[in-house]
Amino acid sequence: MGSSLNEILSFNDSFVKFKQYEPYITSKYPDKKSVILTCMDTRLVELLPKAMNMRNGDVKIVKSAGAQVSHPFGAIMRSLLVAVYALKADEVYVIGHHDCGMSAIDPEVMLSSMLERGISEDIINTVKYSGIDLDEWLRGFGDVSTSVIKSVDIIRNHPLMPKMTPVHGLVIDPNTGKLDLLEDGNAYLAEKGVQAEV
Question: Signal sequence: where (predicted)?
């Protein structure tokens, strides 16, 4: 199978020429003052915003494999902080999904695939010897609910996240769009006696 680059560029020429972008014009600030951390799963590209009644311009969307914050000072957490401090998001949603590919990732299978695609054993060993636990770094999470709650906890308790920011945890069905609430950030703040910013 060939690259889709030429097809994309050809379509894009027509898209711009005929001003098909006009219905999507909006500002860089989310109208609903929210940021969503969700999975990169292909089934969620259009389904998730539709299931949440979100249109172009309503929210910031950050995507990672499994909707995970794997490191408190990594790129995902930085993106969430940028959304809150620079782009006027007052609320955070972490939305995992059922049947997530990340839940079944086996590090040994991933490493074998890397070897098959040309990454040498020497490079893998160098990464391991430099202190990176590849088995842990590549491991899937097993249970989506537990993973979402873990990410909510990392975000909610991050030293740079404003304490009055509601952080919600949900799981979406990638077939129907049904959302199940795991963590209500507003209820959490109310229990702590903190007034939400929203």
Answer: none
